[in-house]
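Appendix B, record 7
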Amino acid sequence: MATEDIVITDAAADEMTPTAQALRTYPLAPGHNVNVRSGPGTHYSVVRTLPAGSRIPIYCQCPGESVAGPFGTSNIWDNISNGQYVSDAYVQTGSDGYVAAKCS
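C-alpha cells (predicted):
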C-alpha cells in the first residue's frame, strides 16, 4: 500500500480549528518555573505552574499587565489554553512583538 504526503493549503488550514492545526511551540526561559494565570496579569489567579524546560503553544496573544522577565519587559500575554495565560517576558519567541494573532 503506497502512502502519499498530505499537503494542507492555507485555505484548508484556515478552516481547521487551532487544535487541529500543527502549532509551533516555544521554550520557556531556562531555569524558570513559570506561573500560568487565568488572565493577562499577575493579579489573576495561578492556574498551574510550568516547570523549567517546558515548551508551550501560543494560540493567540493579548495586551495586559507589563511584566519584567528574562526576555525583557513586555505587556504581551500568551494564551496557551482556554483561560490560561503566560507572560511573554518568560517565553523565547525570538520577537519583542506579537508572533500569533491577537486574542478576540
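Remarks on this record: Residues 6 and 12 are 12 Å apart (CA to CA). Confidence is low (pLDDT under 50) at residues 1-20.
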